[in-house]
Amino acid sequence: GVLMRRPDLLYRVDRSLQEKGLSRLATTDFQHTDHQAILRLLQQSIEQDIAEPLNYVLNSLSLEMMEVADSLLVRTGNLDPNGDRVLEDLLRGLITVRQAAVRQNIDYLRYLMEEAQQQGDLKATQYQQTMVQHTVVLQRLNRALG
User: CB–CB of 80/1 below 8 Å?
Assistant: First the structure.
């Protein structure tokens, strides 16, 4: 909702994430496909020069997606999208969501690794290497939050 109100924040979010050694905002940061589609439209909206970004997004949405967008705008109606804290809160929320996803992936990999080890499968080593990579990402996220 905040990004819909201020699509220009996408640049600042990406810059802040990259300064912290993290990847830019991506559709994979959202679990719901509706939110992923809206993010894609937001990213397209700031790359075009035909219409104002919010108008571009709203004009590109189906009726069903319009309801999702309206819901996001209503939920963020009390926030001042121009305040300095909005960017900080947005980043903190994004990093927290990423942390939860990485932790969930690590837990799943741990399960797969244990299963593979019990069956003598060589994939256990691959799972362990992927777990190490995820752990490094989790450490970066933890540092980014302070």
Answer: no
C-alpha torsion 74→76→77→78, nearest 10: 140
pLDDT tens per residue, range 9-53: 899 999 999 999 999 999 999 989 999 999 999 999 999 888 988
Is there a contact between 2 and 86 (Cβ–Cβ < 8 Å)? yes
Separation between Cα atoms, residue 55 and residue 32, nearest integer Å: 22
What's the sign of the alpha-carbon dihedral 20, 22, 24, 26?
A: negative
Asked if residue 76 lies in contact with residue 5, where contact means CB atoms within 8 angstroms, the answer is yes
pTM: 0.82
The per-residue pLDDT for 94 is 94
- Residues above pLDDT 90, as percent of the chain: 63
DSSP, res 52: -
